[in-house]
Amino acid sequence: MAGRTGAVAEGPFVSIAKIRGRARGAGSEFVLACDMRYASREHAVLSQPEIGLGLVAGGAPTHRLPFLTGRGRALEIMLTGQDYDADLAERYGYVDRAVPDSDLDTLVTDVAERIASFDKVALVEVKDFVGEVTLPAHALQARTGRAFWTSAARPASRRRLDAAGQRGLGRPGDFEMRMGRHLPDLDGPAGSEGRPSS
User: Fold this and answer.
1) Per-residue pLDDT tens for 133-142?
2) Which architecture, in CATH terms, is 2-185?
3) Rounded CA gap, 131 and 10, in Å?
């Protein structure tokens, strides 16, 4: 994923994410690679849930989020795996703006059309200069990709992924809709062997 998100972030075009639904994991990483992010106040949910599955996120959110949210909030997002609604995501800097769902299409269209009316060479140059001080180096992005696959092979991660699958990961239902609430319980009855005794 890191290579694809790098192409979005560094491409000679302006990318705008319009978020009307859930953007978790790789979806969140794609959104983070976009130049701008606008979210539906009623419907958008963002998160990096990998920690709850025993994984290290592979699409470089560990290197993108701190520039947007600051270190503490980036760590909160990455280390809690919880879901963020559009309003909190906006306050944190995870998205640029949260707006009523009825205004989202108009806002994004207006922004895109305004940008499209300007000189393309100047747009690309501005994006490149901003990217020089805000985008992670390619070597860092590659490291997160390797860390993801290494973490996915660990036995503890496999147990958490299996437990998540049993509870509805990747299928319509409460687990997918409210994943952030379910992640701490993956070591519960379906996987309690990994939880320390108190």
Assistant:
1) 998 887 777 8
2) Alpha-Beta Complex (3.90)
3) 7
